[in-house]
Design brief:
Layout (H helix, E strand, L loop, with lengths): L1 H12 L12 E5 L5 H12 L9 E7 H19 L17 H16 L3 E5 L3 E3 L2 E2 L2 E5 L5 H4 L6 E7 L2 H13 L2
Length: 179
């Protein structure tokens, strides 16, 4: 049965665009034709889920026609998240606690990547306490940046500009192949 299902899967996906997924790194792609509010809401919802689980988007690849609009919109939303990081028992809290070791590891990695010019922090990254940091929105020109390649157990979203939808798919798939 395994070989039969494997062949069916290969036949089904041959010549279709698919995204690979590896090591828990969840990526999204935004093409030129999109509704800004809907896309922003979905991206925020997808990237701000419980960060330790393998269910939150950590990398967004945007075509050059969508990049500037979504970057500005996400920046505004991430700045709002700064105000909703806090006590999980309060109704307006959207971003809660993370283990202090994970926060320290993530902030160290972010500083290293900033120092070598691989990422730019657009919003967030303010350490509130030993167990809280405001969500980070970072841009990068390097699809192989650690921020895009690896599952990061923290509230962080990396954004990469691509020339086309096809380039986005190619870079996501190449990065998945590295894990």
């Amino acid at each position: 049965i395994g070989k039969y299902l494997g062949n069916l899967t290969i036949d089904h996906f041959t010549s279709k665009t698919i995204l690979r997924h590896a090591s828990g790194r969840c990526a999204g792609i935004l093409d030129d034709d999109f509704d800004l509010k809907t896309a922003t809401d979905l991206i925020i919802s997808s990237s701000m889920k419980y960060p330790i689980g393998c269910n939150s988007m950590k990398a967004l690849f945007a075509t050059k026609g969508s990049y500037d609009k979504i970057l500005e919109s996400l920046k505004n939303e991430f700045e709002k998240l700064d105000k909703t990081t806090g006590d999980p028992l309060k109704s307006k809290t959207r971003v809660v606690y993370i283990d202090s070791k994970l926060i320290n590891y993530m902030l160290k990695k972010v500083d290293e990547l900033k120092r070598v010019g691989l990422i730019n922090i657009v919003a967030g990254g303010k350490k509130i306490s030993d167990i809280q940091v405001t969500p980070i929105l970072a841009t990068t020109n390097d699809a192989h940046s650690e921020i895009l390649l690896n599952e990061t157990s923290a509230y962080i979203l990396g954004l990469k500009k691509c020339d086309s939808f096809e380039q986005c798919v190619k870079e996501v798939n190449e990065a998945a192949g590295e894990n």
